[in-house]
Amino acid sequence: MFYTSILESVGVIDFNPRFWLRVDIKNDSSLCWEWRGYLDSKGYGRMNINHTFYGSHRFVFSLMGIDIPPGLVVMHSCDNPPCCNPLHLSFGTHLDNMQDAIKKGRHISCKYPAPVDGRSRSAHSTARYRLKKLFLL
Q1: pLDDT tens digits for 18-47?
Q2: Would you state the CATH architecture of domain 4-106?
Q3: Which residues contact 98 (CB under 8 A, 6 or more apart)?
Q4: What pLDDT digit, counting tens, does each position of 82-93 carry?
Q5: Where are the domains of the chain?
Q6: What radius of gyration do the chain's Cα atoms show?
Q7: How many CA atoms lie within 13 A of 2 on its CB side?
């Protein structure tokens, strides 16, 4: 395969063509290698193996001979959900991932700040929905 040397350079030991043919591998290992197969509603690559779906960004580690430690998640340094480049992926706790998202302005709390009147976001959403329905906005 044409990309074997690139994969070896980033630590891949299993050159599974079923997986890697679905990844847009760039000659530059600093760029994102995007999954070209099925994407879930959040944009993450998903792969079906024996009727079980796996995240493509998580499956990369099995192709590197690395088990994901229990209790840890796979984080993207590039903030690109379909990216499968091992150099862009790392392990962290859920808290690490949330703190990273907040720091980079990707967390929902950054996009929808808490209302200043003390009501919950859901109360605001419900009120907006009722107004739209009432006035057909």
Answers
A1: 888 899 999 888 999 999 999 999 999 999
A2: Alpha-Beta Complex (3.90)
A3: 107
A4: 999 999 999 999
A5: 4-106, 113-137
A6: 20
A7: 6
Instruction: Tell me the residue length of the chain.
Output: 137
- 68-118 pLDDT, tens digit per residue, is 999 999 999 999 999 999 999 999 999 999 898 888 887 766 666 656 665
The owner of tokens 């590039």 is 78
